[in-house]
Specification:
The chain has 332 residues and is α/β, with parallel strands linked by helices. The chain folds into 2 domains: 3-126 and 270-299, Rossmann fold (3-Layer(aba) Sandwich), CATH 3.40.50.450; 140-262 and 319-331, Rossmann fold, CATH 3.40.50. It contains 11 helices and 11 strands. The protein has helices at 16-29, 40-46, 79-92, 103-114, 139-160, 175-184, 198-210, 238-249, 270-288, 308-313, 320-331; strands at residues 3-8, 33-37, 49-52, 96-101, 118-123, 162-168, 188-190, 216-221, 253-258, 294-299, 302-307. The strands form 2 sheets. The chain has a 7-stranded mixed beta sheet, with helices on both faces. The model has no long low-confidence stretch (mean pLDDT 96). Bound molecules: 6-O-phosphono-beta-D-fructofuranose (F6P). 6-O-phosphono-beta-D-fructofuranose is lined by residues 10-11, 102, 125-127, 169-171, 222, 228-229, 264. 6-O-phosphono-beta-D-fructofuranose binds next to loops.
Length: 332
């Protein structure tokens, strides 16, 4: 294999640039030419493709986001769109493709495999909801961003004896909310994987008040009441629903904060930088070994290779025992 392309797709994640850099430098060191596809699968269709050299990937490690940009592409979901993409790749003589993104991006990679290209997936999404890896690129940085935000919100909650409902991202998974609740000491956490019980949240706020603490932090995953990307209006946000209900039932000053896209930005953490680097290098090794339809992941403290179809088949769910721990710590 002499020509490899790299695509970043779906929501960007801090650490993607580390994966792009490591994959490019590893491939070049093995005598390959590397191409970067801009704007995900849509850019592949329109031919927004540039050569990636050592110079092109220098000084990108510390940058959040993806220097290749990303986009969601409806056209790639059509046979005609995928054929246009394949023609672009064939014209360049590209044989192998590294796709950095979430499960939706991996589904696109599988379509490219079906068109005769060797593909390997790198899990890159702050949601951390990809099977076959304990961690996806971006999750650790996003978690630290949320933790910093909770710490800042707690200061004003204490000053004003308020209840803050803080909405975090995660699409239809609760990893960000759950781990931020553990790390940030939230009084309650609501995740899409578990039926929300707002009366239980109210009980917890009253318990906290009885023991003398007059402020509370309630963490809510954005997907608690359904897919946040289903085109619902802003006023249908999870935080809005929870805050409105608490306002009716609790005689406290309630405020809502929706953290939104700050969770996607920022300079990557050391963990995301090393994870992205390890994943990028391994992905090239997998392609040069002649493998196809694989993904790299972080399992048992090392990089492991799995079948991409496993990650496409089902999303990773939050561990119930971790949710139980969060509940115990919040209610004691
Ligand atoms: O998948 C990453 C993610 O940040 C989700 O947590 C969130 O629901 C979604 O992307 C937001 O998508 P967009 O950036 O297209 O609004």
């Amino acid at each position: 294999m002499k020509r490899i392309a790299i695509i970043t797709s779906g929501g960007d994640a801090p650490g993607m640039n580390a994966a792009i850099r490591a994959a490019t430098l590893t491939a070049i060191s093995s005598g390959c030419e590397v191409f970067g596809v801009k704007r995900g699968y849509q850019g592949l269709i329109t031919g927004e493709i540039m050569e990636l050299t050592s110079m092109a990937v220098s000084e990108i490690l510390h940058q959040g986001g993806t220097v290749l940009h990303s986009a969601r592409s409806k056209e790639f979901q059509t046979v005609e769109g995928r054929e246009k993409a394949a023609i672009q790749l064939r014209n360049l003589g590209v044989e192998g493709i590294i796709v950095i993104g979430g499960d939706g991006s991996f589904r696109g990679a599988r379509e490219l495999s079906n068109l005769g290209f060797a593909t390997v997936g790198i899990p890159g999404t702050i949601d951390n909801d990809i099977q076959c890896t304990d961690l996806s690129i971006g999750f650790d940085t996003a978690l630290n961003t949320v933790l910093d935000s909770i710490t800042k919100i707690r200061d004003t909650a204490v000053s004003h004896d308020r209840v803050y409902v803080v909405e975090v991202m995660g699409k239809n998974s609760g990893f960000i909310a759950l781990y931020a609740a553990l790390a940030g000491g939230a009084d309650a956490v609501l995740v899409p994987e578990i039926e929300p019980d707002l009366d239980q949240v109210i009980k917890r706020i009253h318990t906290v008040n009885r023991i003398g603490r007059r402020h509370s932090i309630v963490l809510v995953a954005e997907g608690v009441y359904g897919d946040p990307l289903s085109g619902r209006s802003f006023t249908e946000s999870a935080a809005f629903k929870v805050g409105t209900y608490l306002n009716l039932k609790v005689k406290k000053d309630i405020r809502i904060t929706i953290l939104g896209h700050i969770q996607r930005g920022g300079s990557p953490s050391a963990l995301d930088l090393t994870l992205g680097t390890r994943f990028g290098a391994k992905a090239v090794d997998v392609l040069l070994a002649g493998e196809n339809g694989k993904m790299v992941g972080w399992v048992d403290h090392d990089v492991q290779v799995s079948a991409m179809d496993e990650a496409i088949a089902r999303k990773k769910q939050v561990e119930p025992e971790i949710f139980k721990l969060a509940e115990i710590l919040a209610s004691t």
